[in-house]
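seq:
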Amino acid sequence: MKWPDIEKKIKEKFGKQILKWAEHNERRIYADIPLPLLKEFVQFLLGPLKGRFIIASGVDTPRGVIEILYHFDFYQLPQVFSLRVMVDKKNPKVESLAGVSKAIEWIEREIHELLGIEFTGHPDMRHLILPDDWPEGNYPLRRDQ
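struct:
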């Protein structure tokens, strides 16, 4: 499958629910989606579209939300497709995607430790990077800490 086919399938399934579609260049495509749509969207990318999870990244923005980007590629294609969700800092909860792909498990642990996102339903929220005695509620990548 070529990128135009993948894009068409994504837009057919989720088009009206995508908040913003941005092509940074021919190899980097971003879609902003509502947080409640995340799990279904990722299941679609990894299932029928045969995508591959690369990594997720998070940033505490000056707008009072934490932005999480989930990055995917498709075998033999040069495009990287990134889903972007906004998480309210006052209620930083996201349904865990570890059950969708085991590869997502460790990065959710890292984002939890560094930004304070609670990944509900995650099977193992042990510390990954920070020492076990790191102070509870102290998130090193938060702007307000």
